Amino acid sequence: MSSAYAKQRQPDLFTGFPGPIVEADWLAQHVMSPALRIVDLRDRQNYDAGHLPGAVWFDRTMLSRTCEDHSVTLISSALFASVIGRLGISNTTPVVAYDDVWGMHAARFVWALWRYGHTQAAVLSGGVDAWTHAKQRVTRSRVLCYPQTFVATPDATQRADMLWLVSHANDRQFLLLDVREEYEYVAGHLPGARHWEWQNAISTRSWAMLHHPESLRERLISAGITPNQRIVTYCNAENRAAHTLVMLRSLGYPDVRLLDDAWRSRVKVAALAAAMD
């Protein structure tokens, strides 16, 4: 396997993303930009078998911590800053993330960047599958990057915790979305949560992150999920919730947060139920 050293990134050379989701054809025009950092969220063996040029591998489990109630939440700002800096990402480094599961892991990575104050980040729709379908090459070259300083500045508008839900329980514009599979929702969900499965946004015939965005927007509105609402998404490990969050943002929904808390706590659930009465 050959080795390639990543160049020092010059963010001022990059002109910005068209949205929170980018297509392979767009990335092909920018992949060689020295400003851009591409992050591969797949399993390591898949990265080693072939990845996008310049892509660095990241162990996605490093983003998570498990609470006493077995809920999964995002790591602290200090720890996040450390692991992200080692990827060669500073506060001004544009980032594209991809995976091989409809963008779920990439979406959580991008949301985590947003959560800690980094706004220039997007998901590659379709991942390597879309990349190769667009007749672009992959490489097995290792990419070694220069560590950068990342200063994590938590953005409260990206996250909700159980206290936030309690304080907004009687807000008519508030909508809590459980994006898990139906059997999970039926087995037990948060008080007041509406079920809208994350897979409604995709097609199993493709790895694309969204399936027919225009019709998807119409289906969301028909289901009572509208852009004027304050929406909070949740699941078990934040990946599916992040996918739905990025999907909604891409469709013009401005106020979408991810529930990042120990939401299975009986005390917290009881407090939410009481607030909903």
Automatic annotation (TrEMBL):
InterPro entries documented for this protein: Rhodanese-like_dom, Rhodanese-like_dom_sf, Thiosulfate_sulfurtransferase, Thiosulphate_STrfase_CS
Domain Rhodanese residue range list: 32-140, 170-268
Highest taxon of the lineage: Bacteria
Keyword Lipid metabolism in record: no
Listed GO MF terms: thiosulfate-cyanide sulfurtransferase activity
Gene3D superfamilies: Rhodanese-like domain
Reactions that this protein is recorded to catalyse: thiosulfate + hydrogen cyanide = thiocyanate + sulfite + 2 H(+)
Family matches, as Pfam families: Rhodanese
Record keyword Repeat present: yes
Enzyme Commission no: 2.8.1.1
Keywords, alphabetical: Repeat
Record-linked PROSITE patterns: RHODANESE_1, RHODANESE_3
Stored PANTHER family: THIOSULFATE SULFURTRANSFERASE (PTHR43855:SF1)
The name this protein goes by in its record: thiosulfate sulfurtransferase
